[in-house]
Predict the 3D structure of the following.
Amino acid sequence: MKNTLLLWSAWFLASALWAQSQPKQYVLIEHFTNSRCIICASRNPAFYNLISQYPKDIHHLAVHPPVPYSNCAFYQYNTAHNSKRADVYGINGTPRVALNGVLIPAGNPLLPQATLEAALGKTSPVAIQVKEGGAAPTKTAEVTVRVFGNVPAGSYKLFVAVAESTVNYNAPNGETKHYDVFHAMLTDIDGQDITLPAPGGSVSFNFAYTHVQPNGWTSNFDSLYVLAFIQEAPSKAILNSGTRFDPVFTQVAEAANARAVRWSPNPATDYASAFLPGERIRSVEVFTLSGQRCSAEFTVEADLVRLSIERLPPGAYVARITTDSGPYVGRIMRW
């Protein structure tokens, strides 16, 4: 009887969680900088330090417009695409940052931490999955957009960018490491019109990119990756973004197979632990009962998952553990 109740509890929690939750909305940060800009060199380090604190929540793309110097080596690599992306936001000076399609006022710091944190923990009705293939000098990418909820009315465009994760280059402004350097758009430079299907549907697109070694700096093919995002044209709002590094969001397909997991202590005030012998833990996510994703850290030691809940407001939560064999769900009370 006890096991039956446990199974029914797991089914109820899984059904409620998957029915109400939506994919995580990643924070897309478009960073407009210039390799000859002294102000960029002075403000970028603090900015990079800030976003490095949220590696699982942020997608960063460094665009190099021709201001204040058109002889910036990164701008010269693809003048048309760098200029066009900067023109979307009317960039007339660097450094600047656009967060999820909203241009942040110029200042120091470049991006206030409070502004960034206010954008975290959101959800989106769509998830974007990127698969990459190919061999030097050609990279291929399959971008799949899956819809899990009602998409706000609007005119949407898909952008698929190629970026280089780290470039080692002694720039004239003194910077030596450059992150997520924009190479090119694989879609049209103005984006590709996309009609999003009804909830439960998906649409896929295929792209190819031939890598060309630039002049003045060295590019590494193995450091290239694809960043896809959907932007609402008039408002510039970002619906969501995705890379191959992101975990795949699943919903209905896993709900029926979700198993119960016990958290202890429960209720808890700071930490709760779950024991999953023989499982390989891929991720741990926490949701409110209304389906809102919460920010919570976890550690894994052998078969034990330790979840930090001390920063969560008191209340009831559902925690989902994704393993190689499938998902587990369980309720946690935070005192």
